[in-house]
Write a structure and sequence with these properties.
The structure is a single chain. The longest helix has 17 residues. This protein has 7 helices and 9 strands, in the order βββαββαααβαβαββα. It has about 240 residues and is of the alpha/beta class. The model has no long low-confidence stretch (mean pLDDT about 95). The chain has a domain of about 130 residues: Rossmann fold (3-Layer(aba) Sandwich), CATH 3.40.50.300.
């Protein structure tokens, strides 16, 4: 039986209103164990594409297909927490809603220990630094052990030690078979760790494929992703 992608996106156009599309002709898939890097300038349409995939846009013409039974987690660019819940209560809440097992909570404790957040679990995330909030959000996404992980700028606010830890975790997730779609501006890191790339420009995918393939499609002369990025897009996505 053919191994189907975990996620397949075929978006003709999408936006907040019909006939006012922000993105168009977005076609890609994410396979088991694949880390795909979505890159582009501010305003290129990366975050809008992620919103379309997550079903957060009111107007989408096309199809977003997830393999049957696929679970997913999302790490937003800006951490989002409930004001009235402590950090640990967030894990308990997700565990109850998703009907997860005790072993997931045990794994959550491992993640929090790795991120040096154990002594903060009974405090409110609103009092945390941005870096601490980001680490808590990463742990919340990963403790569910999803089949598909969608990440928007995961390195923002992380110190070098936490960045290294996150990279190790991404390797572990891929080895487990998790498919990962990662939007990032850290191109040196993306070029080093990603299996494939989606170059987004002016609301559409300019090129896609392996590093060699996108560099060839972009006509890169210096062999880096930086030369594939247009500076002509706007500031907002």
């Amino acid at each position: 039986m053919r191994n189907l992608p975990l996620l397949k996106a075929n978006i003709s156009q999408a936006g907040y209103k019909p006939n006012e599309s922000i993105i168009s002709n977005i076609h890609f898939s994410i396979n088991k164990g694949e880390l795909a890097g979505m890159i582009g300038a501010n305003g290129a349409g990366k975050s809008t594409t992620i919103k379309a995939v997550l079903g957060e846009l009111p107007f989408v013409e096309g199809e977003i297909e997830k393999k049957e039974g696929t679970s997913y987690s999302y790490i937003p660019e800006r951490p989002i927490y409930y004001d009235e819940l402590t950090l640990w209560e967030h894990f308990e809440f997700v565990c109850a809603v998703e009907q997860l097992r005790e072993e997931n909570l045990a794994y959550a404790k491992e993640l929090l220990k790795a991120f040096r957040l154990t002594d903060k679990i009974h405090e409110f995330p609103g009092t945390f630094s941005k870096g601490m909030q980001q680490k808590g959000m990463i742990a919340l996404a990963m403790f569910t052990k999803p089949d598909l992980l969608i990440i928007d700028e995961p390195f923002m606010g992380l110190d070098p030690s936490s960045t290294r830890l996150l990279l190790d975790m991404l390797d572990q997730e891929r080895a487990r078979g998790t498919g990962i779609l990662m939007c990032t501006h850290i191109l040196d890191t993306a070029q080093r760790i990603c299996d494939s790339f989606l170059i987004v420009e002016k609301g559409t995918i300019k090129s896609s494929g392996t590093l060699d393939e996108v560099l060839h499609q972009c006509g890169s002369e210096d062999g880096s992703l930086y030369s594939c990025i247009s500076l002509e897009d706007g500031d907002d996505e």
